[in-house]
């Protein structure tokens, strides 16, 4: 594309053209005989090439540009525009041409070829032109019309393709990016953007373009194709442009609009799908996981998280992503699908980035919000069912519980379920056997109660995720407490339901030999449990717990416990307090 120039208003006259511009006073005289012997009364027109399409025909007062060869009846050439490599550019029907040429050009189409036979009285008459055209000469012209326009013409716009969706139309002061092929009216190509591998980028209505192109682009939609025909006085006028656009040339542009924006544009949001029950919307500082397809305004895809089979994870409103995306993600709900249109000054600006996002490109993101959370979020607990009666005790730290659960992502993707196994899940609360958020959510429950838990990643599997769990994923649990057993105080493996025997060592020393072996110790503890006098830590292998208890009491690790070694946990704790004091 060329920049608008200052057209000259001087019409060049060529020396030989004076032959064609003589006044009709030279056109008097009788015509020469026709091949049949009778004189010609009018111009004989042979249309030996007629183009398939003829959007307009030459009329009186039109400005035309054409090439011709002029010969006599014997074929001798007396003049040719080809020899001068210069088109004839002139207004027809106003007496500036010989009458025969004026008449012969009427009704011609661009690219039409005609053979004109001009009798003397419509040419140079009985006088002729000294040294060049003899008197009473019949003239033969081979003419090809290359351009036609009228000073009353306006820009002609033909819409070749209009996309079904048109988010906005080009207006004055907009910045546009478009591809084009530029030709003269006869189809001669003079320029195109495709050969340069980039769009033509410019402001509309600011004098950066020729006037006709400024007008022809108005009202276009991104993705639209137009044919724009511009008369010379709205293009490069009498001067033309360089060697590729001759003076007084009509220009034809086939344009594809890639995108349009205005420097005053803000981010545009379009909600494509909004899930029911949206109780929370993303705000600055939230951490979000989302999928997206990123495209240019003409639909060209430049990036997609789906192709990587991984969400894009980032903080919102913290400057980690382009400003337009930072703005466009705020206010979104979990599960929402929205379209975010980002103007270039809120994206990658005039320079673009990489080889897929050109400079000054408007970006369109189709986003699906998978989940978001805030680093300060607690576990969200929603009670789905609570038994109306018989809930005198609830689960607490240290309790041994059995429960069923379903675990999924917030978008509904199923991860795990206890129902897939033969037995429910077992855990001792506060024992670091389950993720922290689930541990908190299971506390305070009644047997038979059902809850929904939303666990943020910092209370689940964090940024790294786990097997089957994406990094930074918010987890959704549905849990049902099936049973609970009171836990033991921290550090205890066994507790008495009443005061322990006063003669504990003697009762434990079953064979009365002054020492307690592992078998004796195990038999004694099992007897206390069976008689209901005490209980072991729930949820653990009883034999292993008893072995651990024996090793704790066998302080010198000689495989037996003496009276001096045997101490209750409460006594040990008291001694430790005294030592600290």
From TrEMBL:
Keyword field: Calcium, Endoplasmic reticulum, Glycoprotein, Isomerase, Metal-binding, Repeat, Rotamase, Signal
Pfam families: EF-hand_5, FKBP_C
Disordered: region residues: 551-581
GO cellular component, one term: membrane
Residue stretches making up the PPIase FKBP-type domain: 61-149, 173-261, 285-373, 398-485
EC class of the enzyme, as a word: isomerase
Biased composition, class Basic and acidic residues, residue ranges: 555-581
Catalytic activity: [protein]-peptidylproline (omega=180) = [protein]-peptidylproline (omega=0)
Signal peptide residue numbers: 1-31
Residues in EF-hand domain copies: 504-531, 541-576
Chief localisation class: endoplasmic reticulum
The keyword Ligase appears for this protein: no
Entry GO MF terms: calcium ion binding; FK506 binding; peptidyl-prolyl cis-trans isomerase activity
E.C. code: 5.2.1.8
SMART domains reported for this sequence: EFh
GO biological process, one term: extracellular matrix assembly
Subcellular location: Endoplasmic reticulum lumen
Main function: PPIases accelerate the folding of proteins during protein synthesis.
Name this polypeptide is given: peptidylprolyl isomerase
This protein's encoding gene: Fkbp10
